[in-house]
Design goal:
- 69% of the residues lie in helices and 6% in strands.
- It is built from 11 helices and 4 strands.
Length: 308
Protein backbone atom coordinates (compact mmCIF):
# COMPACT_ATOMS: atom_id res chain seq x y z
CA UNK A 1 0.00 0.00 0.00
CA UNK A 2 1.35 3.41 -0.97
CA UNK A 3 2.28 5.60 2.01
CA UNK A 4 0.28 8.83 2.24
CA UNK A 5 2.54 11.87 2.60
CA UNK A 6 1.98 13.95 5.73
CA UNK A 7 2.66 17.66 6.19
CA UNK A 8 5.96 16.77 7.85
CA UNK A 9 6.99 14.62 4.86
CA UNK A 10 6.33 17.54 2.49
CA UNK A 11 8.33 19.96 4.67
CA UNK A 12 11.29 17.57 5.05
CA UNK A 13 11.38 16.73 1.34
CA UNK A 14 11.30 20.40 0.26
CA UNK A 15 14.00 21.40 2.77
CA UNK A 16 16.36 18.67 1.51
CA UNK A 17 15.78 19.63 -2.13
CA UNK A 18 16.34 23.33 -1.33
CA UNK A 19 19.67 22.58 0.40
CA UNK A 20 20.85 20.63 -2.65
CA UNK A 21 19.85 23.45 -5.02
CA UNK A 22 21.64 26.10 -2.91
CA UNK A 23 24.84 24.03 -2.88
CA UNK A 24 24.63 23.73 -6.67
CA UNK A 25 24.99 27.52 -7.12
CA UNK A 26 28.71 27.82 -6.21
CA UNK A 27 29.56 24.31 -7.48
CA UNK A 28 28.19 24.96 -10.98
CA UNK A 29 29.64 28.49 -11.05
CA UNK A 30 33.18 27.29 -10.26
CA UNK A 31 32.84 24.34 -12.65
CA UNK A 32 31.74 26.64 -15.50
CA UNK A 33 34.66 29.04 -15.00
CA UNK A 34 37.10 26.11 -14.90
CA UNK A 35 35.68 24.36 -17.97
CA UNK A 36 35.55 27.48 -20.15
CA UNK A 37 39.06 28.67 -19.22
CA UNK A 38 40.42 25.15 -19.68
CA UNK A 39 39.68 25.55 -23.39
CA UNK A 40 42.38 28.24 -23.74
CA UNK A 41 44.66 27.50 -20.76
CA UNK A 42 46.27 24.47 -19.09
CA UNK A 43 44.22 22.65 -16.43
CA UNK A 44 46.44 23.91 -13.58
CA UNK A 45 46.00 27.52 -14.72
CA UNK A 46 42.26 26.99 -15.21
CA UNK A 47 41.95 25.78 -11.60
CA UNK A 48 43.82 28.85 -10.30
CA UNK A 49 41.71 31.17 -12.45
CA UNK A 50 38.47 29.54 -11.24
CA UNK A 51 39.51 29.98 -7.61
CA UNK A 52 40.77 33.51 -8.30
CA UNK A 53 37.44 34.50 -9.88
CA UNK A 54 35.22 32.72 -7.33
CA UNK A 55 36.86 34.16 -4.19
CA UNK A 56 36.31 37.90 -4.92
CA UNK A 57 32.85 37.14 -6.34
CA UNK A 58 31.79 35.56 -3.05
CA UNK A 59 33.34 38.43 -1.04
CA UNK A 60 31.43 41.05 -3.07
CA UNK A 61 28.25 38.96 -2.64
CA UNK A 62 28.68 39.02 1.14
CA UNK A 63 29.25 42.80 1.21
CA UNK A 64 26.23 43.46 -1.01
CA UNK A 65 24.15 41.05 1.06
CA UNK A 66 24.93 43.03 4.22
CA UNK A 67 23.68 46.20 2.51
CA UNK A 68 20.50 44.39 1.40
CA UNK A 69 20.15 42.95 4.91
CA UNK A 70 20.15 46.45 6.39
CA UNK A 71 17.80 48.20 3.96
CA UNK A 72 16.01 45.51 1.90
CA UNK A 73 12.81 45.22 3.95
CA UNK A 74 12.12 48.97 4.10
CA UNK A 75 12.77 49.26 0.34
CA UNK A 76 10.28 46.46 -0.43
CA UNK A 77 7.56 48.02 1.72
CA UNK A 78 8.20 51.42 0.12
CA UNK A 79 7.94 49.94 -3.38
CA UNK A 80 4.58 48.37 -2.46
CA UNK A 81 3.25 51.67 -1.02
CA UNK A 82 2.38 49.77 2.18
CA UNK A 83 1.41 51.46 5.45
CA UNK A 84 1.71 50.02 8.94
CA UNK A 85 -1.19 49.20 11.28
CA UNK A 86 -1.09 48.34 14.98
CA UNK A 87 -3.24 46.88 17.75
CA UNK A 88 -4.91 50.21 18.60
CA UNK A 89 -5.96 50.90 15.01
CA UNK A 90 -9.76 50.54 15.30
CA UNK A 91 -10.39 50.09 11.57
CA UNK A 92 -7.79 47.32 11.16
CA UNK A 93 -7.68 45.80 14.65
CA UNK A 94 -9.29 42.58 13.37
CA UNK A 95 -6.41 42.04 10.92
CA UNK A 96 -3.75 42.76 13.50
CA UNK A 97 -5.33 40.29 15.96
CA UNK A 98 -5.54 37.65 13.22
CA UNK A 99 -1.81 37.99 12.49
CA UNK A 100 -1.05 37.98 16.21
CA UNK A 101 -3.02 34.74 16.74
CA UNK A 102 -1.36 32.95 13.81
CA UNK A 103 2.09 34.07 15.03
CA UNK A 104 1.25 32.63 18.45
CA UNK A 105 0.19 29.31 16.88
CA UNK A 106 3.44 29.27 14.85
CA UNK A 107 5.55 29.96 17.95
CA UNK A 108 6.96 33.15 16.41
CA UNK A 109 7.04 36.80 17.55
CA UNK A 110 4.18 38.92 16.22
CA UNK A 111 5.50 40.60 13.05
CA UNK A 112 4.77 44.18 12.04
CA UNK A 113 1.62 44.32 9.93
CA UNK A 114 1.34 46.43 6.77
CA UNK A 115 -1.56 46.96 4.37
CA UNK A 116 -1.30 47.70 0.66
CA UNK A 117 -4.34 49.69 -0.44
CA UNK A 118 -4.98 47.78 -3.67
CA UNK A 119 -7.86 45.56 -4.80
CA UNK A 120 -5.69 42.70 -6.07
CA UNK A 121 -5.32 39.65 -3.82
CA UNK A 122 -1.74 39.24 -2.66
CA UNK A 123 0.57 39.14 0.37
CA UNK A 124 4.26 38.91 1.22
CA UNK A 125 6.60 38.71 4.20
CA UNK A 126 9.93 40.47 4.65
CA UNK A 127 12.48 41.28 7.35
CA UNK A 128 15.93 40.18 8.49
CA UNK A 129 14.90 37.78 11.28
CA UNK A 130 11.64 36.54 12.87
CA UNK A 131 12.13 39.18 15.59
CA UNK A 132 11.84 42.09 13.13
CA UNK A 133 9.74 40.54 10.35
CA UNK A 134 6.79 42.09 8.53
CA UNK A 135 3.67 40.67 6.93
CA UNK A 136 2.01 42.79 4.23
CA UNK A 137 -1.53 42.15 2.95
CA UNK A 138 -3.46 43.87 0.17
CA UNK A 139 -6.85 45.37 0.94
CA UNK A 140 -8.29 43.07 -1.71
CA UNK A 141 -7.12 39.90 0.05
CA UNK A 142 -8.52 41.17 3.35
CA UNK A 143 -11.92 41.94 1.83
CA UNK A 144 -12.30 38.88 -0.41
CA UNK A 145 -11.16 36.02 1.84
CA UNK A 146 -13.08 34.66 4.81
CA UNK A 147 -11.46 34.31 8.24
CA UNK A 148 -10.15 30.75 7.78
CA UNK A 149 -8.78 31.49 4.30
CA UNK A 150 -7.05 34.64 5.54
CA UNK A 151 -5.55 32.69 8.43
CA UNK A 152 -4.18 30.23 5.87
CA UNK A 153 -2.53 33.04 3.87
CA UNK A 154 -1.06 34.62 7.02
CA UNK A 155 0.20 31.20 8.14
CA UNK A 156 1.85 30.76 4.72
CA UNK A 157 3.67 34.08 5.17
CA UNK A 158 4.58 33.24 8.78
CA UNK A 159 6.06 30.01 7.42
CA UNK A 160 8.37 32.00 5.14
CA UNK A 161 9.50 33.91 8.24
CA UNK A 162 9.97 30.80 10.37
CA UNK A 163 11.69 28.85 7.58
CA UNK A 164 14.13 31.76 7.01
CA UNK A 165 13.05 31.99 3.37
CA UNK A 166 13.47 35.78 3.43
CA UNK A 167 17.15 35.35 4.16
CA UNK A 168 17.50 32.68 1.46
CA UNK A 169 15.75 34.78 -1.18
CA UNK A 170 17.97 37.76 -0.28
CA UNK A 171 21.04 35.55 -0.73
CA UNK A 172 19.89 34.31 -4.15
CA UNK A 173 18.84 37.73 -5.51
CA UNK A 174 22.07 39.34 -4.24
CA UNK A 175 24.18 36.61 -5.81
CA UNK A 176 22.45 37.03 -9.16
CA UNK A 177 22.91 40.80 -9.09
CA UNK A 178 26.61 40.57 -8.24
CA UNK A 179 27.42 38.01 -10.95
CA UNK A 180 25.69 40.18 -13.57
CA UNK A 181 27.67 43.24 -12.36
CA UNK A 182 31.01 41.39 -12.46
CA UNK A 183 30.17 39.99 -15.89
CA UNK A 184 29.73 43.53 -17.21
CA UNK A 185 33.07 44.58 -15.68
CA UNK A 186 34.86 41.64 -17.34
CA UNK A 187 33.30 42.51 -20.70
CA UNK A 188 34.72 46.05 -20.45
CA UNK A 189 38.13 44.64 -19.47
CA UNK A 190 38.29 42.38 -22.53
CA UNK A 191 38.68 45.38 -24.87
CA UNK A 192 41.61 46.79 -22.88
CA UNK A 193 43.28 43.39 -22.64
CA UNK A 194 43.00 42.82 -26.40
CA UNK A 195 44.76 46.14 -27.13
CA UNK A 196 47.49 45.66 -24.53
CA UNK A 197 48.41 42.02 -25.20
CA UNK A 198 51.47 40.84 -27.14
CA UNK A 199 51.57 37.81 -29.47
CA UNK A 200 52.42 35.33 -26.65
CA UNK A 201 49.83 36.67 -24.25
CA UNK A 202 46.39 35.04 -24.23
CA UNK A 203 44.92 37.15 -21.41
CA UNK A 204 42.14 38.45 -23.68
CA UNK A 205 41.15 34.90 -24.60
CA UNK A 206 41.13 33.86 -20.93
CA UNK A 207 39.06 36.91 -19.99
CA UNK A 208 36.62 36.15 -22.78
CA UNK A 209 36.18 32.57 -21.56
CA UNK A 210 35.65 33.78 -17.98
CA UNK A 211 33.04 36.24 -19.25
CA UNK A 212 31.41 33.44 -21.27
CA UNK A 213 31.18 31.33 -18.10
CA UNK A 214 29.48 34.24 -16.29
CA UNK A 215 27.17 34.77 -19.27
CA UNK A 216 26.00 31.14 -19.34
CA UNK A 217 25.63 31.12 -15.56
CA UNK A 218 23.57 34.33 -15.52
CA UNK A 219 21.45 33.57 -18.57
CA UNK A 220 20.65 29.88 -18.03
CA UNK A 221 21.86 28.33 -14.78
CA UNK A 222 20.92 31.05 -12.26
CA UNK A 223 17.32 31.57 -13.46
CA UNK A 224 16.71 27.80 -13.46
CA UNK A 225 18.16 27.31 -9.96
CA UNK A 226 16.34 30.39 -8.63
CA UNK A 227 13.07 29.12 -10.08
CA UNK A 228 13.59 25.67 -8.57
CA UNK A 229 14.51 27.03 -5.11
CA UNK A 230 11.60 29.48 -5.04
CA UNK A 231 9.14 26.75 -6.02
CA UNK A 232 10.42 24.40 -3.32
CA UNK A 233 10.12 27.17 -0.71
CA UNK A 234 6.55 27.92 -1.82
CA UNK A 235 5.62 24.26 -1.45
CA UNK A 236 7.33 24.21 1.96
CA UNK A 237 5.49 27.37 3.08
CA UNK A 238 2.16 25.89 1.96
CA UNK A 239 2.86 22.71 3.94
CA UNK A 240 4.05 24.59 7.04
CA UNK A 241 1.11 26.99 6.81
CA UNK A 242 -1.24 24.00 6.73
CA UNK A 243 0.59 22.60 9.76
CA UNK A 244 0.11 25.86 11.71
CA UNK A 245 -3.62 26.20 11.03
CA UNK A 246 -4.37 22.46 10.81
CA UNK A 247 -6.55 23.44 7.85
CA UNK A 248 -4.90 22.84 4.44
CA UNK A 249 -8.30 23.10 2.72
CA UNK A 250 -8.66 26.75 3.77
CA UNK A 251 -5.31 27.70 2.21
CA UNK A 252 -6.21 25.74 -0.94
CA UNK A 253 -9.47 27.70 -1.16
CA UNK A 254 -7.58 30.97 -0.63
CA UNK A 255 -5.15 30.14 -3.45
CA UNK A 256 -8.07 29.57 -5.84
CA UNK A 257 -9.45 33.04 -5.11
CA UNK A 258 -6.00 34.67 -5.23
CA UNK A 259 -5.23 33.15 -8.64
CA UNK A 260 -8.18 35.03 -10.14
CA UNK A 261 -6.64 38.45 -9.40
CA UNK A 262 -3.17 38.57 -7.79
CA UNK A 263 -2.24 41.83 -9.59
CA UNK A 264 -0.66 44.65 -7.56
CA UNK A 265 -0.16 47.79 -9.65
CA UNK A 266 2.69 49.17 -7.51
CA UNK A 267 4.66 45.93 -8.08
CA UNK A 268 3.76 45.37 -11.73
CA UNK A 269 7.27 46.30 -12.92
CA UNK A 270 9.17 44.91 -9.91
CA UNK A 271 10.25 41.46 -11.06
CA UNK A 272 12.43 40.94 -7.98
CA UNK A 273 9.34 41.22 -5.75
CA UNK A 274 7.46 38.43 -7.52
CA UNK A 275 9.37 35.67 -5.72
CA UNK A 276 8.42 36.87 -2.23
CA UNK A 277 4.69 37.32 -2.90
CA UNK A 278 2.19 34.50 -2.39
CA UNK A 279 1.33 34.83 -6.10
CA UNK A 280 2.94 36.68 -9.01
CA UNK A 281 1.81 40.34 -8.61
CA UNK A 282 2.78 41.42 -12.13
CA UNK A 283 -0.19 39.75 -13.79
CA UNK A 284 1.97 38.68 -16.77
CA UNK A 285 1.03 35.25 -18.11
CA UNK A 286 2.77 33.76 -21.12
CA UNK A 287 4.24 30.38 -21.94
CA UNK A 288 7.80 31.56 -21.18
CA UNK A 289 6.84 33.40 -17.99
CA UNK A 290 4.90 30.38 -16.73
CA UNK A 291 7.81 28.02 -17.42
CA UNK A 292 10.32 30.31 -15.65
CA UNK A 293 7.95 31.44 -12.88
CA UNK A 294 9.25 31.45 -9.32
CA UNK A 295 5.90 30.05 -8.13
CA UNK A 296 4.66 26.53 -8.86
CA UNK A 297 1.39 26.22 -10.80
CA UNK A 298 -1.46 27.02 -8.43
CA UNK A 299 -3.22 23.80 -9.45
CA UNK A 300 -0.25 21.78 -8.18
CA UNK A 301 -0.16 23.73 -4.90
CA UNK A 302 -3.86 23.13 -4.35
CA UNK A 303 -3.50 19.44 -5.23
CA UNK A 304 -0.73 18.99 -2.64
CA UNK A 305 -2.69 20.82 0.04
CA UNK A 306 -5.81 18.77 -0.59
CA UNK A 307 -3.78 15.56 -0.36
CA UNK A 308 -2.54 16.38 3.16
Amino acid sequence: MKKVKTVYDHIRSNNIKTAILVILFPVIFIALVFLFTWIVAPASDAINIAIGVAAPTFVICMIWMLISWAFGDSMMLHMANAHQINDNDAQNKYIYRLVENVALAAGLPTPRVYIIEESGLNAFATGRTPADATVALTRGIINKLDKLELEGVIAHEMSHIGNRDIRLEMFVITGLGVTVFISDMILHSITHASHARDEKDNSAAVLFMVWLAFFVFNLIISPLLHMAISRKREFAADATGAQITRNPAALASALRKISDNPNVASLSDRKSMAAICIANPTGKKSLVSELMATHPPVEERIKRLESM
